[in-house]
């Protein structure tokens, strides 16, 4: 069967987007579709699959599947792209609207230029800090801030944050030598995290600026992670290395995001969203 798709990216974090307002797809196929469409040799090539779909509780709904077919539950870069797509394709007509993810409903504000959307701000809601809700091993109700852990014989200091999906954040002195590719996969599947985890390495440049690299659960190395950037700024505040209520510029491999953990608790994320291509994917169900 032919499935209409749009490929979009937020700072290089690229997904195949399928518009379920126009084309319905059986839920049972989604993990397999995500794996096949993401394959760079036999599919289109992407970090995963995102569904833009009707929602009973918001103006539009989003589901995200990683490259390996696992469901991601939330995706910051995906939310900005969904907001851009929804506005540019007439799914919504206002510049402020709501998007439902697997974990919460977020507010989106699109910035327009001649009917197109170059930038989006998403209110990502409150970070989840309770250990058992990350989820992280142990039923402790306290948060995980600068906790010593040993991974692959390396002593690390871990801060854990969920933005609807789990993140393990580590401070490094020099982002260029951060062990993203070596330790990233070991952290991802470490027994401390029963649902696996996204691993972020961050280098503070100042209290308002940091460098960031990520190993994503289910997708591996990507150029950016929106929920990860939010988690990084929350971790920086929790470790008293950044201020709440102030913008922090996060430099990711694919570009910059502007993140603020507001005084009342929500995390705001602002950044770009771009369309790459659209067409038909020839899907073979085996
Ligand atoms: N790239 C995303 C996050 C995608 C999901 C993640 N890999 C997970 O499994 O939690 C982002 O921009 O937030």
UniProtKB/TrEMBL annotation:
Its EC number is 5.1.1.7. Transmembrane segments: none annotated. It comes from Lentibacillus halophilus. Homodimer. This is Diaminopimelate epimerase. Catalyzes the stereoinversion of LL-2,6-diaminopimelate (L,L-DAP) to meso-diaminopimelate (meso-DAP), a precursor of L-lysine and an essential component of the bacterial peptidoglycan. Belongs to the diaminopimelate epimerase family. Pathway: Amino-acid biosynthesis; L-lysine biosynthesis via DAP pathway; DL-2,6-diaminopimelate from LL-2,6-diaminopimelate: step 1/1. SUPFAM superfamilies: Diaminopimelate epimerase-like. The record marks 167, 216 as: Could be important to modulate the pK values of the two catalytic cysteine residues. It is found in: Cytoplasm. PANTHER family: DIAMINOPIMELATE EPIMERASE, DIAMINOPIMELATE EPIMERASE, CHLOROPLASTIC. The keyword Cytoplasm applies. It is an enzyme of class 5 (isomerase). Its main location: cytoplasm.
């Amino acid at each position: 069967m032919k499935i209409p798709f749009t490929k979009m990216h937020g700072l290089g974090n690229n997904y195949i987007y399928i518009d379920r307002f126009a084309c319905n797809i059986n839920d049972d196929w989604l993990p397999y579709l995500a794996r096949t469409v993401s394959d760079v040799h036999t599919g289109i090539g992407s970090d995963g699959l995102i569904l833009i779909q009707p929602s009973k509780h918001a103006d539009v709904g989003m589901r995200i599947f990683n490259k390996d077919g696992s469901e991601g539950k939330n995706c910051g870069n995906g939310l900005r792209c969904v907001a851009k797509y929804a506005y540019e394709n007439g799914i919504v007509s206002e510049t402020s609207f709501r998007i439902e993810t697997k974990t919460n409903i977020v507010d989106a504000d699109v910035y327009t230029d001649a009917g197109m959307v170059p930038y989006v701000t998403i209110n990502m809601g409150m970070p989840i800090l309770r250990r058992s809700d990350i989820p992280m091993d142990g039923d402790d109700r306290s948060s995980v801030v600068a906790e010593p852990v040993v991974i692959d014989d390396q002593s690390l200091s871990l801060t854990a944050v969920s933005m609807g999906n789990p993140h393990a954040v580590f401070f490094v002195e020099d982002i260029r030598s951060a062990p993203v590719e070596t330790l990233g996969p070991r952290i991802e599947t470490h027994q401390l995290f029963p649902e696996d985890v996204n691993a972020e390495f961050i280098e503070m440049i100042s209290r308002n600026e940091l460098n960031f690299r990520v190993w994503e659960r289910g997708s591996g190395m990507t150029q950016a992670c929106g929920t990860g950037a939010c988690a990084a700024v929350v971790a920086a505040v929790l470790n008293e290395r950044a201020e709440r209520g102030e913008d922090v510029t996060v430099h990711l491999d694919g570009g910059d995001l502007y993140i603020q953990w507001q005084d009342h608790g929500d995390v705001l994320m602002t950044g770009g969203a771009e369309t790459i291509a659209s067409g038909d994917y020839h899907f073979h169900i085996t």
